[in-house]
Structure prediction request, 121 residues.
Amino acid sequence: MRKFPAHLPAIALTCSLLSGCILPPATSTGGGLSPASSGPDGVQTTETVSTLPARIEAGVEWLWASYTALQAKGIVPGLADLRADIVDLEAVATRGDLLAALELYGRARARVTAISEVVGK
Prediction:
C-alpha cells in the first residue's frame, strides 16, 4: 500500500470544505439582483470598472468648471480648499487609486455644493 504524507488528507479536506463556501461573484449578489444593478457596494462588472477612469476624468473636468464659475463671482470662502481638493484628486487618479479618487471626488463635490449655497444667499 502506498503511503501519503500526513498533510495531504488535511489539504484535501480543507479544499472540499472551502469549495462549498466560496461562491462566484455572479451568484452572490444577494436577493437575486443582477451584478450590474447591485450598486456601488455590490458586485461590479468589468464594464463598470473599465469606465471608472473616464468617469473620474469627467468629474475632474466638472469640478474645474465649477471652480472657474465660482471664481468668476469674486472672493468666495472655501475656494482655496476646493482647488486643493481638485489637485489632490488629480494626483490620486493619476496614481490609479480609483477608490480613493472617488472618495476625494465626493468630498470636492460636497464642497462645491456648500460653496454654491453660501454664494447663492
User: Anything to note?
Assistant: The first helix runs from residue 7 to 21.
